[in-house]
């Protein structure tokens, strides 16, 4: 039987979707700005949707072919469960939908953020952050809703046909819709990324060098295309990518919970109630995370005349606040849902992961913000010529990869250690 606490997951999903709609309506009602702002924003919006329609046509064809192939593998070759093709489709659909909703909001928010920033820096930040919050909450809401519906449906089916479905099979089927989300994200990120880089080069070379139009001047057609690419690649593509990563992290942890139960049950006399708690704990934690993320959104504000560093601190307030709250929630969730001899170690693993995420965010800002020495050093090389800019930029880029790799490596070893990985069982 599904533990009652599991229903926090679908509740969190629904709440995230409700609040994303509230934030969307709030962004949409903001002042759209001057006629020129609206005109430029419309060019970008029209171009973004034109690109996305073409991309979804191509992706749709691929998914139809993949669906047919998977059905042959399931019904003819009998090497896949018959539900896996359907799970693959739902993963791809919701992944694309998350990106679409995020891009729809972003193209509406661009001119509204600009107009708000002319009145107040804090107001401009809030409009922009609420627009970004729509994307974040839609990813969380759709992802967790998809996971919850599949888990509830498959679990109910297993109660009717225990000979055909068990908890192990459920986790395998659910992992397959992560593959559909990954496929959608691959097309969205690569296609949109290539488009935006090509348009960026066009704006730089043709418009600025040959025609003498400044790179960021709206009269430069490639500038519009560049902004279109930013939306389809960095918003729609990132939305699909985040959906895949979010679902993948929950589903992988659930699968690991099932694997851990299978291994440890040979030593401990556990029943199936422990198994289902180990599988559903990541979903419950994600549901609580949806509640706390909404709280984090409303923590973000800044002062007027703020620097880039101040703005990043304002954004980090929401991240740090949510992280502290989810750490507290994780202590009680792990204590309640996991075996007593392992719960505290898994809680420590969660804390280590949260801390690692914050550290990686810090080093990302350190190497990309012009408020810090690495980026300023690249800019200073511009006084000597393009060659030194390239060399300095390449060097800084290589250095910037070191910190995340080291942090992730230490995090894996530390989490493995505190979870009794070196003292099994």
In short:
This protein has 425 residues and is mostly helical.
Key phrases:
425 residues, mainly alpha, 0% strand
By DSSP, the count of extended strands is 0
Helix content: over 70%
Task: Report the sheet with the most strands, covering strand number, pairing sense and barrel closure.
Answer: none
* Helix/strand order, N-terminal first: HHHHHHHHHHHH
Terminal Cα separation, in Å? 27 Å
Characterization of this structure:
By secondary structure, the chain is mainly alpha-helical. It has 12 helices and no strands. The radius of gyration is 24 Å and the shape is globular.
Question: Secondary structure elements and their pairing?
Answer:
Elements: H1 8-28, H2 35-76, H3 84-119, H4 121-160, H5 167-210, H6 221-264, H7 272-297, H8 308-337, H9 340-368, H10 373-380, H11 386-400, H12 402-418
Helix pairs in contact: 1-4, 1-7, 2-3, 2-6, 3-4, 3-5, 3-6, 4-5, 4-6, 4-7, 5-6, 6-7, 7-8, 8-9, 9-12, 10-11
